[in-house]
Amino acid sequence: MTEKMRFGIIGAGVIAPTHAKAIRSLPDAELVAVADVIPERVEKIVDTYGIHGYTDIQAMLDKEQLDIVTICTPSGMHGEHACMAMRSGRHVVVEKPMEIRRAAMDEMLHVQKEQLVKLAVISQHRFDAANQQVHALVAEQAFGKLVMGNALIPWWRSQGYYDSGAWRGTWQFDGGGVLMNQSIHSIDVLQWLMGKVKSIYAYTDTRVHRMESEDVAVAVLRFANGALGTIAATTGAYPGTGTRIEIYGDKGSASIEADELGYLHLARDDKEAMGDYGGSGKAAKAEKAEASAANNPAALSTNSHALQFADMIRAIREDGTPLVDGVSARHPVEIILAIYESARTGKEVTLS
Ligand SMILES: NC(=O)c1ccc[n+]([C@@H]2O[C@H](COP(=O)([O-])OP(=O)(O)OC[C@H]3O[C@@H](n4cnc5c(N)ncnc54)[C@H](O)[C@@H]3O)[C@@H](O)[C@H]2O)c1
What we know:
By secondary structure, this protein is α/β, with parallel strands linked by helices. 38% of the residues lie in helices and 23% in strands. 47% of the residues are buried. The protein binds nicotinamide-adenine-dinucleotide.
Protein backbone atom coordinates (compact mmCIF):
# COMPACT_ATOMS: atom_id res chain seq x y z
CA MET A 1 0.00 0.00 0.00
CA THR A 2 1.32 3.42 -0.92
CA GLU A 3 2.03 5.95 1.84
CA LYS A 4 -0.80 8.27 0.85
CA MET A 5 -4.11 6.57 0.09
CA ARG A 6 -4.75 6.99 -3.64
CA PHE A 7 -8.38 7.74 -4.51
CA GLY A 8 -10.34 7.42 -7.75
CA ILE A 9 -13.91 8.69 -8.24
CA ILE A 10 -16.56 7.00 -10.39
CA GLY A 11 -19.28 9.46 -11.48
CA ALA A 12 -18.52 13.15 -12.03
CA GLY A 13 -21.91 14.78 -11.39
CA VAL A 14 -23.28 16.95 -8.57
CA ILE A 15 -21.73 15.16 -5.58
CA ALA A 16 -18.33 14.40 -7.15
CA PRO A 17 -16.72 17.81 -6.34
CA THR A 18 -17.64 17.29 -2.66
CA HIS A 19 -15.69 14.01 -2.78
CA ALA A 20 -12.79 15.66 -4.59
CA LYS A 21 -12.55 18.54 -2.07
CA ALA A 22 -12.90 16.21 0.91
CA ILE A 23 -10.16 13.89 -0.39
CA ARG A 24 -7.92 16.89 -1.12
CA SER A 25 -8.40 18.17 2.45
CA LEU A 26 -6.90 15.03 4.01
CA PRO A 27 -3.12 14.95 4.54
CA ASP A 28 -2.77 11.22 3.92
CA ALA A 29 -5.00 11.05 0.83
CA GLU A 30 -4.35 11.80 -2.81
CA LEU A 31 -6.92 12.24 -5.57
CA VAL A 32 -5.61 10.45 -8.66
CA ALA A 33 -8.36 9.87 -11.24
CA VAL A 34 -12.01 10.22 -12.18
CA ALA A 35 -14.28 8.29 -14.56
CA ASP A 36 -17.65 9.25 -16.06
CA VAL A 37 -19.40 8.37 -19.31
CA ILE A 38 -19.91 12.07 -20.11
CA PRO A 39 -16.56 13.50 -21.41
CA GLU A 40 -17.36 17.15 -20.49
CA ARG A 41 -17.96 16.17 -16.86
CA VAL A 42 -14.67 14.28 -16.76
CA GLU A 43 -12.86 17.26 -18.29
CA LYS A 44 -14.27 19.66 -15.73
CA ILE A 45 -12.93 17.64 -12.79
CA VAL A 46 -9.64 16.93 -14.58
CA ASP A 47 -9.15 20.65 -15.27
CA THR A 48 -10.02 21.65 -11.71
CA TYR A 49 -7.91 19.06 -9.91
CA GLY A 50 -5.17 18.19 -12.41
CA ILE A 51 -5.89 14.45 -12.24
CA HIS A 52 -6.33 11.69 -14.84
CA GLY A 53 -9.72 11.30 -16.51
CA TYR A 54 -11.51 8.34 -18.10
CA THR A 55 -14.79 7.78 -19.90
CA ASP A 56 -14.63 4.07 -19.11
CA ILE A 57 -14.61 2.80 -15.52
CA GLN A 58 -12.75 -0.43 -16.28
CA ALA A 59 -9.98 1.50 -18.07
CA MET A 60 -9.44 3.62 -14.95
CA LEU A 61 -9.40 0.53 -12.72
CA ASP A 62 -6.93 -1.23 -15.08
CA LYS A 63 -4.52 1.66 -15.59
CA GLU A 64 -4.43 3.55 -12.30
CA GLN A 65 -2.76 2.60 -9.06
CA LEU A 66 -5.65 3.17 -6.64
CA ASP A 67 -6.29 2.15 -3.02
CA ILE A 68 -9.84 3.50 -2.61
CA VAL A 69 -12.58 4.11 -5.17
CA THR A 70 -15.59 6.31 -4.35
CA ILE A 71 -18.86 5.68 -6.18
CA CYS A 72 -20.88 8.78 -7.17
CA THR A 73 -23.12 7.31 -9.87
CA PRO A 74 -26.95 7.12 -9.72
CA SER A 75 -28.17 5.04 -6.76
CA GLY A 76 -29.38 2.08 -8.85
CA MET A 77 -25.86 1.66 -10.29
CA HIS A 78 -24.04 1.60 -6.94
CA GLY A 79 -23.96 -2.18 -6.70
CA GLU A 80 -22.62 -2.73 -10.21
CA HIS A 81 -19.90 -0.07 -9.88
CA ALA A 82 -18.95 -0.92 -6.28
CA CYS A 83 -18.57 -4.60 -7.22
CA MET A 84 -16.45 -3.74 -10.29
CA ALA A 85 -14.10 -1.72 -8.08
CA MET A 86 -14.00 -4.31 -5.28
CA ARG A 87 -13.33 -7.10 -7.79
CA SER A 88 -10.31 -5.11 -8.93
CA GLY A 89 -9.05 -5.33 -5.33
CA ARG A 90 -9.89 -1.74 -4.32
CA HIS A 91 -11.54 -0.60 -1.11
CA VAL A 92 -14.81 1.19 -1.85
CA VAL A 93 -16.73 4.14 -0.41
CA VAL A 94 -20.15 4.22 -2.04
CA GLU A 95 -22.54 7.16 -1.87
CA LYS A 96 -25.86 6.75 -0.09
CA PRO A 97 -28.07 4.82 -0.43
CA MET A 98 -25.92 1.67 -0.38
CA GLU A 99 -28.17 0.38 -3.17
CA ILE A 100 -31.88 0.35 -3.92
CA ARG A 101 -32.38 -3.43 -4.27
CA ARG A 102 -31.84 -6.22 -1.75
CA ALA A 103 -30.15 -8.50 -4.29
CA ALA A 104 -27.61 -5.80 -5.15
CA MET A 105 -26.80 -5.23 -1.45
CA ASP A 106 -26.37 -9.01 -1.00
CA GLU A 107 -23.96 -9.05 -3.93
CA MET A 108 -21.96 -6.11 -2.56
CA LEU A 109 -21.54 -7.79 0.83
CA HIS A 110 -20.60 -11.06 -0.86
CA VAL A 111 -17.95 -9.47 -3.10
CA GLN A 112 -16.54 -7.47 -0.20
CA LYS A 113 -16.02 -10.66 1.84
CA GLU A 114 -14.65 -12.57 -1.12
CA GLN A 115 -12.15 -9.84 -2.06
CA LEU A 116 -11.13 -9.06 1.56
CA VAL A 117 -11.56 -5.33 1.00
CA LYS A 118 -13.36 -2.65 3.05
CA LEU A 119 -16.74 -1.26 2.05
CA ALA A 120 -18.10 1.98 3.52
CA VAL A 121 -21.31 3.81 2.65
CA ILE A 122 -21.58 7.59 2.87
CA SER A 123 -23.85 8.64 5.71
CA GLN A 124 -22.00 11.80 6.61
CA HIS A 125 -24.43 12.95 9.29
CA ARG A 126 -23.36 10.13 11.58
CA PHE A 127 -20.14 12.16 11.84
CA ASP A 128 -21.89 15.41 12.88
CA ALA A 129 -20.92 16.51 16.40
CA ALA A 130 -24.53 16.54 17.66
CA ASN A 131 -25.31 13.06 16.37
CA GLN A 132 -22.04 11.67 17.73
CA GLN A 133 -22.82 13.21 21.13
CA VAL A 134 -26.38 11.87 21.31
CA HIS A 135 -25.20 8.45 20.10
CA ALA A 136 -22.58 8.30 22.87
CA LEU A 137 -25.28 9.22 25.42
CA VAL A 138 -27.59 6.50 24.07
CA ALA A 139 -24.72 4.00 24.41
CA GLU A 140 -24.34 5.06 28.07
CA GLN A 141 -28.11 4.54 28.46
CA ALA A 142 -28.34 8.18 29.59
CA PHE A 143 -31.87 8.50 28.15
CA GLY A 144 -33.09 5.54 30.23
CA LYS A 145 -35.69 3.35 28.55
CA LEU A 146 -36.18 4.67 25.02
CA VAL A 147 -39.85 5.35 24.40
CA MET A 148 -40.07 7.26 21.09
CA GLY A 149 -37.87 8.37 18.18
CA ASN A 150 -39.00 10.65 15.34
CA ALA A 151 -37.52 12.02 12.13
CA LEU A 152 -39.13 15.01 10.36
CA ILE A 153 -37.79 15.99 6.93
CA PRO A 154 -39.80 18.93 5.50
CA TRP A 155 -37.66 19.67 2.44
CA TRP A 156 -38.19 21.37 -0.91
CA ARG A 157 -37.02 20.26 -4.34
CA SER A 158 -38.29 22.08 -7.44
CA GLN A 159 -39.63 20.36 -10.54
CA GLY A 160 -36.41 21.58 -12.17
CA TYR A 161 -34.42 19.43 -9.75
CA TYR A 162 -36.36 16.30 -10.75
CA ASP A 163 -36.00 17.20 -14.43
CA SER A 164 -32.23 17.81 -14.11
CA GLY A 165 -31.35 14.13 -14.43
CA ALA A 166 -33.38 11.42 -16.16
CA TRP A 167 -32.75 9.08 -13.20
CA ARG A 168 -34.10 11.40 -10.49
CA GLY A 169 -37.28 10.21 -8.81
CA THR A 170 -37.41 7.00 -10.87
CA TRP A 171 -37.90 3.58 -9.31
CA GLN A 172 -35.25 2.06 -11.53
CA PHE A 173 -32.30 4.30 -10.71
CA ASP A 174 -33.25 6.51 -7.69
CA GLY A 175 -35.09 3.63 -6.04
CA GLY A 176 -37.85 5.99 -4.91
CA GLY A 177 -38.29 9.66 -4.09
CA VAL A 178 -38.01 11.69 -0.90
CA LEU A 179 -37.38 8.61 1.23
CA MET A 180 -34.69 6.79 -0.75
CA ASN A 181 -32.90 9.92 -1.94
CA GLN A 182 -33.22 12.76 0.58
CA SER A 183 -34.46 11.19 3.82
CA ILE A 184 -32.10 8.25 4.04
CA HIS A 185 -29.67 10.52 5.93
CA SER A 186 -32.15 11.15 8.75
CA ILE A 187 -33.55 7.62 8.68
CA ASP A 188 -30.02 6.27 9.06
CA VAL A 189 -29.30 8.57 12.02
CA LEU A 190 -32.68 7.73 13.62
CA GLN A 191 -32.03 3.98 13.49
CA TRP A 192 -28.40 4.48 14.55
CA LEU A 193 -29.65 6.24 17.70
CA MET A 194 -32.83 4.22 18.39
CA GLY A 195 -31.73 0.77 17.18
CA LYS A 196 -33.24 -1.45 14.50
CA VAL A 197 -36.81 -1.07 13.31
CA LYS A 198 -39.01 -4.16 13.71
CA SER A 199 -42.24 -3.18 11.99
CA ILE A 200 -43.72 -0.37 9.89
CA TYR A 201 -47.05 0.98 8.77
CA ALA A 202 -46.94 3.75 6.16
CA TYR A 203 -48.61 6.01 3.64
CA THR A 204 -46.83 7.59 0.67
CA ASP A 205 -48.09 9.90 -2.09
CA THR A 206 -46.97 12.14 -4.94
CA ARG A 207 -48.57 15.53 -4.35
CA VAL A 208 -46.74 18.33 -6.15
CA HIS A 209 -44.15 16.96 -8.59
CA ARG A 210 -44.21 15.18 -11.93
CA MET A 211 -42.23 12.15 -10.87
CA GLU A 212 -42.64 8.38 -10.71
CA SER A 213 -42.10 7.93 -7.00
CA GLU A 214 -43.26 9.63 -3.76
CA ASP A 215 -42.71 13.25 -2.72
CA VAL A 216 -44.42 12.77 0.66
CA ALA A 217 -44.38 9.89 3.13
CA VAL A 218 -45.46 9.24 6.70
CA ALA A 219 -44.54 6.05 8.56
CA VAL A 220 -45.25 4.70 12.02
CA LEU A 221 -42.48 2.55 13.45
CA ARG A 222 -42.00 0.01 16.17
CA PHE A 223 -38.33 -0.41 17.05
CA ALA A 224 -36.88 -3.79 18.05
CA ASN A 225 -36.39 -2.44 21.61
CA GLY A 226 -40.14 -1.78 21.88
CA ALA A 227 -40.04 2.01 21.41
CA LEU A 228 -42.38 3.63 18.89
CA GLY A 229 -41.55 6.31 16.34
CA THR A 230 -42.43 8.18 13.19
CA ILE A 231 -40.88 9.30 9.94
CA ALA A 232 -42.52 12.22 8.11
CA ALA A 233 -40.83 13.38 4.94
CA THR A 234 -41.52 15.50 1.88
CA THR A 235 -39.76 17.40 -0.88
CA GLY A 236 -42.95 19.42 -1.42
CA ALA A 237 -42.61 21.82 1.54
CA TYR A 238 -41.53 25.16 0.09
CA PRO A 239 -39.07 26.70 0.95
CA GLY A 240 -37.76 23.68 2.87
CA THR A 241 -36.77 23.78 6.50
CA GLY A 242 -34.21 21.82 8.47
CA THR A 243 -34.64 18.24 9.54
CA ARG A 244 -35.49 17.37 13.11
CA ILE A 245 -34.62 14.13 14.84
CA GLU A 246 -36.05 13.52 18.31
CA ILE A 247 -35.11 10.91 20.89
CA TYR A 248 -37.19 10.43 24.02
CA GLY A 249 -36.62 8.18 27.03
CA ASP A 250 -37.78 8.05 30.64
CA LYS A 251 -34.53 9.64 31.78
CA GLY A 252 -33.93 12.21 29.06
CA SER A 253 -34.84 13.86 25.76
CA ALA A 254 -32.85 15.26 22.86
CA SER A 255 -33.59 16.90 19.55
CA ILE A 256 -31.20 17.45 16.68
CA GLU A 257 -32.39 20.32 14.52
CA ALA A 258 -30.77 21.02 11.15
CA ASP A 259 -27.84 18.80 12.21
CA GLU A 260 -27.17 20.73 15.44
CA LEU A 261 -28.11 19.90 18.99
CA GLY A 262 -31.37 21.78 19.60
CA TYR A 263 -32.33 20.38 22.98
CA LEU A 264 -30.81 18.04 25.50
CA HIS A 265 -32.06 17.32 28.96
CA LEU A 266 -30.98 14.35 31.07
CA ALA A 267 -32.40 13.44 34.47
CA ARG A 268 -28.90 12.70 35.69
CA ASP A 269 -27.99 16.39 35.32
CA ASP A 270 -30.99 17.69 37.30
CA LYS A 271 -30.04 19.40 40.54
CA GLU A 272 -33.47 18.66 41.95
CA ALA A 273 -36.30 16.37 40.88
CA MET A 274 -38.62 17.78 38.18
CA GLY A 275 -41.84 16.79 39.93
CA ASP A 276 -44.83 14.99 38.49
CA TYR A 277 -45.29 17.28 35.49
CA GLY A 278 -41.67 17.48 34.29
CA GLY A 279 -39.98 20.56 32.84
CA SER A 280 -41.60 23.60 31.20
CA GLY A 281 -41.06 24.91 27.68
CA LYS A 282 -39.20 27.87 29.19
CA ALA A 283 -36.61 25.62 30.76
CA ALA A 284 -36.22 23.84 27.44
CA LYS A 285 -35.39 27.08 25.63
CA ALA A 286 -32.73 28.07 28.15
CA GLU A 287 -31.10 24.69 27.79
CA LYS A 288 -31.14 24.91 24.04
CA ALA A 289 -28.91 27.98 24.15
CA GLU A 290 -26.55 26.31 26.61
CA ALA A 291 -26.39 23.10 24.65
CA SER A 292 -25.62 24.68 21.31
CA ALA A 293 -22.84 26.85 22.75
CA ALA A 294 -21.30 23.99 24.63
CA ASN A 295 -21.57 21.25 22.04
CA ASN A 296 -20.84 22.77 18.68
CA PRO A 297 -17.08 23.09 18.38
CA ALA A 298 -16.11 24.72 15.09
CA ALA A 299 -13.50 22.03 14.45
CA LEU A 300 -16.19 19.41 14.09
CA SER A 301 -18.40 21.41 11.77
CA THR A 302 -16.03 20.86 8.84
CA ASN A 303 -16.77 18.67 5.86
CA SER A 304 -18.41 15.49 7.10
CA HIS A 305 -17.45 13.64 3.91
CA ALA A 306 -13.80 14.26 4.85
CA LEU A 307 -14.43 12.80 8.32
CA GLN A 308 -15.95 9.75 6.71
CA PHE A 309 -13.06 9.29 4.27
CA ALA A 310 -10.63 9.68 7.20
CA ASP A 311 -12.60 6.98 9.03
CA MET A 312 -12.21 4.68 6.00
CA ILE A 313 -8.46 5.32 5.88
CA ARG A 314 -8.24 4.52 9.61
CA ALA A 315 -10.19 1.28 9.06
CA ILE A 316 -7.83 0.23 6.26
CA ARG A 317 -4.65 1.10 8.15
CA GLU A 318 -5.83 -0.63 11.37
CA ASP A 319 -7.59 -3.45 9.52
CA GLY A 320 -10.72 -2.41 11.40
CA THR A 321 -14.30 -1.66 10.37
CA PRO A 322 -15.52 1.67 8.99
CA LEU A 323 -18.25 3.32 11.13
CA VAL A 324 -20.79 2.96 8.30
CA ASP A 325 -19.90 -0.40 6.78
CA GLY A 326 -22.07 -2.34 4.34
CA VAL A 327 -23.88 -4.32 7.04
CA SER A 328 -24.75 -1.17 8.97
CA ALA A 329 -25.81 0.80 5.86
CA ARG A 330 -28.20 -1.92 4.74
CA HIS A 331 -30.79 -1.42 7.51
CA PRO A 332 -31.91 2.13 6.53
CA VAL A 333 -32.52 0.85 2.99
CA GLU A 334 -34.52 -2.08 4.43
CA ILE A 335 -36.62 0.44 6.43
CA ILE A 336 -37.38 2.40 3.27
CA LEU A 337 -38.22 -0.73 1.25
CA ALA A 338 -40.59 -1.75 4.06
CA ILE A 339 -42.26 1.69 3.99
CA TYR A 340 -42.84 1.29 0.23
CA GLU A 341 -44.25 -2.19 0.74
CA SER A 342 -46.61 -1.06 3.50
CA ALA A 343 -47.82 1.91 1.46
CA ARG A 344 -48.40 -0.38 -1.53
CA THR A 345 -50.16 -3.20 0.32
CA GLY A 346 -51.90 -1.19 3.06
CA LYS A 347 -50.49 -3.64 5.59
CA GLU A 348 -48.01 -3.53 8.44
CA VAL A 349 -44.62 -4.87 7.30
CA THR A 350 -42.28 -6.75 9.63
CA LEU A 351 -38.55 -6.47 9.00
CA SER A 352 -36.46 -9.63 9.34
N1 LIG B 1 -24.21 12.29 0.57
C1 LIG B 1 -24.92 13.27 0.05
O1 LIG B 1 -25.26 14.24 0.74
C2 LIG B 1 -25.33 13.21 -1.40
C3 LIG B 1 -25.71 14.37 -2.08
C4 LIG B 1 -26.05 14.27 -3.43
C5 LIG B 1 -26.04 13.03 -4.06
N2 LIG B 1 -25.70 11.91 -3.36
C6 LIG B 1 -25.71 10.57 -4.00
O2 LIG B 1 -24.68 10.56 -5.00
C7 LIG B 1 -25.09 9.79 -6.14
C8 LIG B 1 -24.98 10.66 -7.40
O3 LIG B 1 -25.84 11.77 -7.25
P1 LIG B 1 -25.59 13.11 -8.12
O4 LIG B 1 -26.60 14.08 -7.64
O5 LIG B 1 -24.13 13.45 -8.12
O6 LIG B 1 -26.02 12.56 -9.56
P2 LIG B 1 -25.58 13.13 -11.01
O7 LIG B 1 -26.59 12.65 -11.96
O8 LIG B 1 -25.32 14.59 -10.92
O9 LIG B 1 -24.19 12.39 -11.25
C9 LIG B 1 -24.09 11.01 -11.56
C10 LIG B 1 -22.98 10.82 -12.58
O10 LIG B 1 -22.79 9.43 -12.82
C11 LIG B 1 -22.44 9.31 -14.20
N3 LIG B 1 -22.63 7.93 -14.70
C12 LIG B 1 -23.79 7.32 -15.00
N4 LIG B 1 -23.53 6.08 -15.47
C13 LIG B 1 -22.19 5.93 -15.46
C14 LIG B 1 -21.32 4.85 -15.83
N5 LIG B 1 -21.78 3.69 -16.28
N6 LIG B 1 -19.98 5.04 -15.68
C15 LIG B 1 -19.49 6.21 -15.22
N7 LIG B 1 -20.28 7.27 -14.86
C16 LIG B 1 -21.60 7.11 -14.97
C17 LIG B 1 -23.35 10.31 -14.89
O11 LIG B 1 -22.89 10.63 -16.19
C18 LIG B 1 -23.31 11.48 -13.93
O12 LIG B 1 -22.32 12.42 -14.27
C19 LIG B 1 -26.54 9.34 -5.85
O13 LIG B 1 -26.53 8.02 -5.38
C20 LIG B 1 -27.01 10.27 -4.75
O14 LIG B 1 -27.95 9.67 -3.87
C21 LIG B 1 -25.33 11.99 -2.06
